[in-house]
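All the exercises in this workshop are built on plain-text protein records. Instead of coordinates, the fold is spelled out as a row of discrete tokens. Once this layout is familiar, the rest of the handout is easier to follow. The record below serves as our worked example for the rest of this section.
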Amino acid sequence: MIDVKQPGIRMLESCHRDLTSQDAVHYLSTCTTDLRAFHFYNRTGGTCYGPVARNIHGVDESVNMESVRQTLKTYALFISRWCEISPA
């Protein structure tokens, strides 16, 4: 479990909200990801933020392409804010 009040999580949520005018949806997943290594070995917080998906890892898995574009924009904004990169 991650503390959603950590600075990185709060900033990611802020970027999502600034771009979509909506709050990010939180949910607990019963599957594992590579993120488990950060939690297990280093006690490092993190999150899996990504596009809207359906039937993940199933034979008919799919993602919403607009949400892929939105995810990329959110990550770009997050990186620029986290690294304090100012526009050229």
